[in-house]
Design goal:
64% of the residues lie in helices and 9% in strands. The protein has 12 helices and 6 strands. Strands 1-3-2 form a 3-stranded antiparallel beta sheet. It has a 3-stranded antiparallel beta sheet with strand order 4-6-5. Strand 2 and strand 3 form a beta hairpin. The longest helix is centred in the C-terminal third of the chain and has 37 residues. The radius of gyration is 22 Å and the shape is globular. The N terminus is likely disordered.
């Protein structure tokens, strides 16, 4: 059953967990001492870690890559666990970054997630979602990073699109969106941010003012592209709506 698959959590000894997370055992011990990860399950003298710990370690790695300190990450984790929203301030994000809107995370039990996607929550789909960063495991709960993305995925599955296909499309879309984001960031950095800094103006306010322009361009271009695609497919359909030999 899907629920049992969602509940299934693999366990690891410390060396295996460190290897899967791409860190050393010494680093893992340090994280545990700093309480950056939950305590392991004890079986006598053996400590057992699971996929919850692996997800947390991957989250820590991602934050470190973005330049956050371990102290800031510890505060972020504490804020996340207490339900606080002011994570941008806690992490010391500059105004230009903190001003961008954040997605609303959703906490679900494994059973609720399985029910939400009607049997599509397989071990493979869970792994893909974790790799994409859509899901993280926190204690006994699963956290989806975005209410909007969760609802869109749910609607697509309701319309008959397999969840595995939705996730595959999401990975492809992310590659394109990352390229679009790079284009806009370069544009602002080259032609706006540098001039604002020279004039002593607030870069965060400028970015916030121009952000809707980037969103509007992407929305308009996507609408035009989908219209072109629909016209092309319509032109390829023979009269009467049938293709091939009669």
């Amino acid at each position: 059953m899907a629920t049992s698959e969602a509940d299934e959590v693999r366990e690891y000894r410390m060396p295996e967990l460190a290897e899967k997370a791409g860190i050393t055992v010494r680093t893992l011990r340090f994280y545990r001492e700093r309480k950056l990860i939950p305590p392991p399950r004890r079986d006598g003298r053996i400590a057992w870690y699971n996929d919850h710990h692996l997800a947390r370690l991957r989250t820590i790695a991602g934050l470190l890559e973005r330049g956050h300190t371990l102290g800031g990450i510890a505060e972020l984790i504490a804020a996340f666990e207490s339900g606080r929203r002011d994570v941008g301030e806690l992490l010391g994000l500059p105004g230009a970054v903190a001003s961008w809107p954040s997605e609303t995370p959703v906490r679900l039990t494994p059973e609720a997630l399985a029910d939400y996607f009607h049997g599509e929550v397989t071990a493979e789909n869970l792994t893909t979602s974790l790799d994409l960063g859509y899901l993280a495991v926190d204690g006994d709960e699963i956290v989806h990073l975005s209410r909007r993305l969760l609802d869109v995925s749910h609607t697509l599955v309701e319309q008959g699109v397999p969840l595995a296909a939705v996730l595959a499309a999401a990975r492809e879309v992310r590659e394109h969106v990352d390229a679009i984001a790079e284009t806009f960031v370069t544009l602002l950095r080259t032609h706006v941010a540098a001039d604002d800094l020279e004039r002593g103006e607030d870069v965060g306010e400028t970015v916030e003012r121009l952000r809707p322009l980037a969103t509007s361009v992407v929305d308009a271009e996507l609408t035009l592209a989908m219209n072109r695609r629909m016209r092309t497919e319509g032109d390829e359909t023979p009269p009467g709506g049938h293709s091939g030999d009669q």
